[in-house]
Design a protein that fits this description.
Largest sheet: 4 strands, mixed
Strand content: 5-15%
Number of helices: 9
Structural class: alpha/beta
Radius of gyration: 17 Å
Order of helices and strands: EEHHEHHHHEHHH
Distance between the termini: 37 Å
């Protein structure tokens, strides 16, 4: 997401509390710049830096005045959250081992061969087409590594979700904006702990 009023870009890998942070900005009176969705080539959610630059028609020179940041999350918790969201999107009760094994098997196709990933992981391109029509990736970007969002050589600051959930002031200070606190994460740690194996 891009905020022209306060000159910042927020990179949003899925399952890193992007909805919570969007609500935090809204409650703090920060207006996020609306995106024209005439270009429906791909969903306009969870875009990489390069994709944001493309859809907002921004260049590196313009972004010299912008602050760019990304929230990162413990990768195990991010995967578990992704798993629960993925089975909801698929409307199928796939086991975590099934999802994990297929993710490991086909991850080498990402980020460059997404059509082949859709075919191998999801069973065909029909799922991609239906997901794109609903302006979502169908779960594809759950399997992108968090560092793939920084796909341009620009300064990007990382903030850990777990830290900001306790104290949002580092992000407030970085942006120079008084932000409301993030809601505390749901207590799913016991569920997540039970899924951890060797």
């Amino acid at each position: 997401m891009v905020c022209f009023d306060h000159k910042f870009i927020y990179l949003q890998p899925p399952k890193t509390a992007s909805k919570s942070l969007n609500n935090c900005f809204k409650q703090s009176g920060i207006n996020i710049s609306k995106l024209n969705r005439n270009n429906k080539e791909f969903p306009h959610l969870h875009l990489t830096l390069k994709e944001l630059m493309s859809v907002y028609d921004l260049d590196k020179d313009t972004l010299k005045d912008f602050k760019i940041f990304q929230i990162t999350r413990n990768p195990y918790n991010r995967f578990f959250s992704s798993y629960y969201h993925q089975i909801k999107l698929l409307n199928e009760n796939k086991s975590i081992n099934y999802i994990l094994n297929n993710a490991i098997k086909f991850k080498k196709l990402l980020p460059n061969n997404i059509d082949e990933f859709y075919i191998k992981f999801y069973g065909g391109l029909e799922y991609k087409i239906k997901s794109f029509e609903r302006n979502n990736w169908g779960g594809l970007r759950f399997y992108f590594e968090q560092n793939w969002w920084v796909d341009e050589e620009l300064d990007v600051i990382d903030f850990k979700l777990e830290d900001l959930a306790e104290d949002i002031s580092p992000l407030s200070n970085y942006l120079g904006i008084k932000l409301k606190s993030l809601p505390k994460p749901k207590k799913k740690m016991n569920i997540y702990d039970s899924l951890l194996g060797d």
